[in-house]
Amino acid sequence: EGEVVALLGSNGAGKTTTLIAVAGLIPASGGEIAFAGERIDGRPAYSLVSRRIALAPEGWRLFVGQSVENNLMLGATPLADKSRAPGLLERVYAIFPRLAERRRQLAGTMSGGERQMLAVGRALMSDPRLLMLDEPSLGLAPATVEMMYETLERLHAEGLTILLAEQSIELALEFADRAYVLQVGKTAMAGKASDLANDPEVQRVYLGMG
């Protein structure tokens, strides 16, 4: 709790599969998944969101025919106390001012960077304890990636626990406390991000040359 943990690896390594298994979107093929001391594997995805686990998926998965604000408010659906939604909405707008400017715009007309902001903002509307991010830098301009990671740094500083899958190994290791390098569904390396960042073996495993 309170950490940033990165899952690293090339395409097909198992990063997305791990995240969606934790989120309850697919069954775990073995082992156990626990959150806050309680076993959660086998539970439906909607029940995990209400337990304050949120996923911002790769490719955003937005409701493109709906406005920015409608997409955000859909993220608040699991809240037991619906009166909290307006306050959470204003918090998201404070975190991502661009979304406030675009609140009436259809999600399908936004740029890639704006869609990534919206996907993260929608996840934050459920007030998660654990925020999972699948490839948050994929396909974005360098300036947008820098802005996104600065935002994630602020959220982490406020106490949010973050689990992210990321192909940009240098970026992820700079941001994370710990990291796991996956290779064909198995953990090839694990440790403190700072140690892995200085380990030449990481590049070998990451590039699949071993």
Account of the protein in words:
It is a single chain. The chain has a six-stranded mixed beta sheet with strand order 4-5-6-1-7-8, with helices on both faces. The chain has 210 residues and is of the alpha/beta class. The two termini are 33 Å apart. It has helices at residues 15-22, 45-49, 68-75, 85-95, 97-101, 112-124, 142-157, 169-175, 193-197, 200-206, and strands at 4-8, 34-35, 38-39, 53-56, 130-134, 161-166, 178-183, 186-192. Helices cover 40% and strands 18% of the residues. Helix 3 (68-75) packs parallel to helix 6.
How would you summarize what this structure contains?
The protein is α/β, with parallel strands linked by helices and 210 residues long. It contains 10 helices and 8 strands.
- The secondary-structure element order is EHEEHEHHHHEHEHEEHH
Instruction: Give the helix proportion (percent range).
Output: 40-55%
Strand content: 15-25%
Q: Uncertain spans, ≥5 residues at pLDDT below 50? A: none
Describe this protein with a few key phrases.
about 210 residues, 8 strands, alpha/beta
Topology of this structure?
Elements: E1 4-8, H1 15-22, E2 34-35, E3 38-39, H2 45-49, E4 53-56, H3 68-75, H4 85-95, H5 97-101, H6 112-124, E5 130-134, H7 142-157, E6 161-166, H8 169-175, E7 178-183, E8 186-192, H9 193-197, H10 200-206
Parallel strand pairs: 1-6, 1-7, 4-5, 5-6
Antiparallel strand pairs: 2-3, 7-8
